[in-house]
Design goal:
With 601 residues, the protein is an alpha+beta fold.
Length: 601
């Protein structure tokens, strides 16, 4: 072949290589942005992009936007009384790149997106979309300074899509600018992406949860209160704290959860609860379903006074198969949940809000009895009198201590000064501090204005706290006088109003036998007895009544503080609410929602 022809073929072959290379480069240049758009499109179809989609969770002050968590400054979506989901307006606009507007005088909010504008007014169900008027299911509202709007109607006006997942699936509200429907498959994928960031819904976090609190012998199982008692049915199985470690009464907690806990002759406990079988030794070594439990702070403790066996909160979590969280609320509240709560502030706050059900323990020294009576004394403390050189109230405390009886003392601030020793004994010997105003006003609290009512009680609470280190847990108005103002101010201060169901009239009938007879013949289970530690006849009559009742053989009697009586009856004393007795009937009416106490004016 001539040289010229061979050279031409080589050049043509080389040129063809160049063509392939150029084609590949062009393909890459074209494919990369197309591929990027495809990937972005697939991702956007699911997760929406930073300004195309937002995932709210009911009652959670954080939202999920563009793969990140957005803090809404404490504002959280909720469902109103009509069942309509409402969301914070500002957070929705910021998340979706909307332009918000606000007219202060009319309290009208505007939401602008491109050429479209939606206007809604607080308190009105009318929605204006451009020149069109529509009706919403619920009206926008301002709650704690935040404007909330019904999300579905606003999105419908803008031709956007919304979707919801119920509480069992996360309680989510999804808002998307996409024109495509948010079907179940897409919502499920969104939930899988968002829930690890937002955390479980309220229902999810409560279902199967166990809530405990230091010094409470109650347990909340899935939000329902249970009492923790030992094998003999004794009260006082309370969570305790020792050197910074929280300890759970094993037998009491497991029994309250519907499980069983038993000890063998080698002090080894066998536990069956929530489908798990465990063994725990007295040194804290444990096995669950035959496997050794490993981790930090897995310890156990036997209380020398009661003989009860306690396990650390960490070990208890391993035994029941749940995650432990110390809510660090200052009340020593412990949460055990199916999912860990680290980083989920809203969920922790919700659990913490339930701890009011975990009432104070009745104490391990309260005997089992057929009849529980709360003794209460007004107007003291009282110092030395003839025949009582150490003080009348001090003499009463001596007598109560000898008889194993507790009482509640509603003290007047002006009488407290100079009796510090007596004040300290009250708490040390198991009695309860009560507030009976600073000056005992003659026209009763119900005759004063709100500011005076507040000052009469709050100033006395501060004085009592100054003397004892503890604020009063209950209050009694002078003469039992109550009206709306008194209840409102006591709610603000944070104390329940406790009057009485048995009046000995000791202030009028200065007679020891009359006081004794009133208690013995009138007081029954759940009654609150009114007396005054101002009179020797009251003190001696009360002690005589205790002797009479404790000597009976047909029934057993125990004399307790008002808060102990409430704990025994399963009643949570609510601030600003009036209580005259704490009987089983009262407990039932509170549970039924029919409680309506008689109120003195």
């Amino acid at each position: 072949m001539p040289y010229q022809a061979r050279r031409y073929r080589r050049r043509r072959r080389r040129n063809s290589h160049y063509g392939v290379l150029i084609a590949l480069i062009l393909l890459i240049v074209i494919a990369v942005p197309v591929g990027f758009r495809l990937v972005k499109g697939v991702t956007g179809a699911i997760f929406g992009g930073s300004k195309n989609q937002v995932v709210f969770q009911v009652y959670n002050s954080k939202a999920y936007v563009g793969g990140e968590i957005k803090d809404m400054g404490g504002a959280a979506p909720f469902v109103d009384d009509s069942g309509t989901a409402v969301v914070p307006l500002k957070a929705m606009c910021e998340s979706l790149g909307l332009e918000p507007g606000w007219e202060q005088v009319s309290k009208t909010a505007s939401i602008t997106h491109k050429k479209d504008t939606v206007r809604v007014t607080v308190g009105s169900k009318t929605l204006r979309f451009n020149d069109e008027t529509r009706t919403m299911a619920t009206a926008p509202a301002i709650v704690d300074g935040t404007t909330y709007v019904p999300v579905r109607e606003i999105c419908e006006a803008l031709s956007w899509k919304t979707g919801t997942l119920d509480a069992t699936k996360g309680d989510l509200i999804v808002v998307s600018k996409s024109k495509k429907e948010l079907d179940d498959e897409k919502l499920t994928k969104i939930a899988e992406e968002a829930l690890p960031k937002l955390g479980p819904s309220r229902q999810q976090v409560v279902d199967g949860s166990v809530l405990l609190r230091v010094d409470s012998d109650k347990l909340l199982l899935s939000g329902e209160a249970k009492s923790m008692t030992d094998s003999l049915g004794k009260r006082g199985c309370a969570v305790m704290e020792n050197d910074g470690t929280k300890f759970v009464p094993l037998e009491g907690a497991v029994t309250a959860m519907g499980g069983e806990a038993s000890k063998d002759d080698k002090n080894r406990w066998t536990v069956n609860v929530l489908g798990r079988e465990s063994t725990v030794e007295d040194n804290g070594k444990a096995k669950v379903d035959g496997k050794r439990v490993k981790g930090d702070n897995l310890t156990a403790h036997t209380d020398p006074d009661s003989g009860r066996f306690y396990v650390s909160a960490q070990l208890f979590a391993a035994l029941i198969g749940e995650h432990y969280s110390d809510l660090n609320d200052g009340n020593g509240t412990l949460a055990f949940t199916k999912s860990p709560l680290d980083g989920y502030d809203s969920q922790k706050a919700y659990l913490d809000s339930m701890q009011s059900e975990l009432t104070q323990s009745v104490g391990g020294n309260i005997p089992e009895a057929d009849v529980y009576i709360a003794l209460s004394f007004d107007d003291g403390p009282t110092g030395p009198l003839d025949g009582y050189p150490e003080g009348l109230t001090a003499h009463l405390l001596d007598g109560l201590k000898e008889r194993g009886a507790h009482a509640t003392f509603f003290m007047v601030g002006e009488r407290i000064k100079g009796y510090d020793g007596t004040m300290n004994r009250l708490l040390e010997e198991g009695h309860e501090l009560g507030n009976h105003t600073m000056t005992h006003p003659g026209d009763k609290l119900s005759g004063l204005d709100a500011e005076s009512v507040y000052d009469q009680v709050e100033s006395n609470s501060k004085l009592i706290e100054e003397k004892t280190g503890h604020r009063p847990t209950v209050m009694r108005p002078v003469g039992g006088g109550v009206n709306a103002t008194v209840k409102e101010q006591m709610k603000a201060i944070g104390v329940p109003i406790v009057n009485w169901s048995v009046d000995t009239e000791d202030w009028r009938i200065r007679d020891k036998e009359s006081v004794r007879s009133a208690i013995v013949n009138t007081a029954g289970d759940g009654d609150i007895v009114l007396m005054h530690d101002l009179y020797t006849t009251s003190v001696e009559g009360c002690l005589a009544a205790i002797d009479d009742l404790q000597s009976r053989t047909d029934k057993t009697y125990a004399f307790v503080t008002i808060s102990e009586l409430a704990a025994i009856k399963g009643i949570t004393l609510e601030p600003g609410v009036v209580y005259n007795n704490l009987s089983d009937a009262t407990a039932q009416s509170i549970q039924d929602g029919t409680y309506s106490p008689a109120e003195f004016t």
